[in-house]
């Protein structure tokens, strides 16, 4: 390449770089300008923007160009400076001294699980031993020994480790499991059970390849051992529990559900998680024949539903579930399903349909005639639909106004979802460096 050609090459290179920077800045400004704000007249955002139509016909948004839905959902590695993109992360991330102020995280929950403070009032417990050889008399320094303590604890990890649970991990209340600063995997064994306890935070760990375990005698507190039946292989099972916050988890390949919340569990927020490679993803509600889950309140926000997922994102039987600003880049059958008399409010999500025409519908009603499911309140507001995706609404046309603001969490515009969920899943954190 001679001098003239070299000169033209550098001119073109810097022109492209300048254009890219300008576009990036414009996108940032646009996202900020598009944020929703609470109306000044004192009404809630949901009430001010409620859908008033009574039609239950499918609402469809068409696009003339949909470049590979797979690429639209990709979350590549990010090598730039710390950049929180949603309100939860802005609350604690990008502080180099985060490791000295870990409990700041407990102030950052939003949605129905906002009261979960975990082990904020307790001591720091450092897990130094990844083994789980004795589930009746767990060794000090193991995760199982930490979670059975009666006192509040903020549980962290000395270093990278893979914990293969011999039996389900049953925990006491007022606990935080905080994986920041280490590469922590719970894998190739049993999952986590949050049963009849309150105030739990689980943050920044990998949970995958969870298997069915046979049950037996398991210690669930320092002063009690119980006989457990077979564990189905859920990644996380929430059973009769309250005030739970699950944040920045990367989960896949569980024998049963990724996350189940049943038997009257309520006050739950599931946020900033990334899920792949699974059939039954999220199940809320145990049975159609029970009313114990009518009080269930769950917020699902800023999550990325990724590759090779089939269904239940979530599947809801009763209670109220607020689905906000999630990125649905993949599903093989449907995204949101339910039965009984579930109330589902979907706001500001991005739904990218699969190629097969028979699976374009976001919603799926389980085993109910139309005359019945038309009474269930399932409303979509401000959602973005691509690839032919559509959401079939039903129930109270003012449902968004009545239910969408109960968790005091307002949606951002759906076009901002890719940014809001950019760091979904486990994020790398090192002491002394912003996460």
Automatic annotation (TrEMBL):
Co-factor remark: Binds 1 Ca(2+) ion. Required for its activity.
GO biological process terms, semicolon-separated: pectin catabolic process
Domain of life: Eukaryota
Pectate lyase domain residues: 160-357
Pathway assigned in UniProt: Glycan metabolism; pectin degradation; 2-dehydro-3-deoxy-D-gluconate from pectin: step 2/5
Top EC class, one word: lyase
Secretion signal, residue range per the UniProt entry: 1-26
E.C. code: 4.2.2.2
Transmembrane segments: none
Gene Ontology molecular function: metal ion binding; pectate lyase activity
SMART domains: Amb_all (SM00656)
Name of the protein described by the UniProt record: Pectate lyase
The family this protein is said to belong to: Belongs to the polysaccharide lyase 1 family.
Listed Pfam families: Pectate_lyase_4
The protein's required cofactors: Ca(2+)
């Amino acid at each position: 390449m001679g001098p003239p050609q070299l000169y033209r090459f550098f001119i073109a290179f810097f022109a492209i770089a300048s254009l890219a920077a300008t576009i990036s800045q414009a996108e940032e400004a646009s996202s900020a300008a598009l944020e929703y704000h609470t109306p000044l007249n004192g009404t809630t955002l949901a009430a001010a923007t409620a859908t008033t139509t009574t039609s239950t016909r499918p609402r469809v948004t068409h696009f003339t160009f949909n470049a590979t839905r797979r690429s639209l959902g990709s979350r590549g590695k990010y090598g730039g400076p710390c950049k929180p993109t949603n309100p939860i992360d802005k609350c604690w991330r990008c502080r180099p001294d985060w490791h000295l102020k870990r409990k700041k995280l407990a102030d950052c929950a939003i949605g129905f699980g906002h009261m979960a403070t975990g082990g904020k009032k307790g001591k720091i417990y450092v897990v130094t031993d990844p083994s789980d050889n004795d589930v009746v008399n767990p060794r000090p320094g193991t995760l199982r020994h930490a979670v059975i303590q009666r006192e509040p604890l903020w549980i962290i990890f000395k270093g990278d480790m893979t914990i293969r649970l011999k039996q389900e991990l049953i925990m006491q209340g007022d606990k935080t499991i905080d994986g920041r600063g280490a590469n922590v995997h719970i894998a190739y064994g049993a999952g986590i059970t949050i049963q009849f306890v309150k105030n739990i935070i689980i943050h920044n760990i990998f949970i995958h390849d969870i298997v069915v375990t046979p049950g037996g005698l398991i210690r669930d507190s320092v002063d009690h051992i119980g006989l457990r039946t077979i564990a189905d292989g859920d990644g996380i099972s929430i059973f009769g529990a309250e005030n739970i916050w699950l944040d920045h988890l990367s989960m896949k390949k569980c024998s049963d559900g990724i996350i189940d919340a049943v038997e009257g569990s309520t006050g739950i927020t599931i946020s900033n998680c990334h899920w792949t490679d699974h059939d039954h993803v999220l199940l809320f509600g145990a049975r159609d024949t029970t009313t114990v889950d009518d009080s269930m309140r769950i917020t699902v926000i800023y999550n990325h539903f990724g590759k090779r997922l089939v269904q239940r994102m979530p599947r809801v039987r009763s209670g109220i579930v607020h689905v906000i600003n999630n990125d649905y880049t993949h599903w093989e059958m449907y995204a949101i399903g339910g039965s009984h008399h579930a109330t589902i409010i979907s706001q500001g999500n991005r739904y990218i349909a699969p190629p097969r025409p028979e699976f374009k519908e976001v919603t799926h009603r389980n085993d109910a005639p139309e005359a019945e499911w038309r009474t269930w309140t399932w409303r979509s507001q401000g959602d973005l639909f691509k690839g032919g995706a559509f959401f079939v609404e039903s129930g109270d046309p003012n449902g968004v106004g009545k239910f969408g603001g109960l968790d005091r969490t307002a949606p951002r515009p759906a076009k901002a979802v890719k940014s809001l969920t950019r760091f979904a899943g486990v994020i790398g954190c090192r002491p002394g460096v912003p996460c």
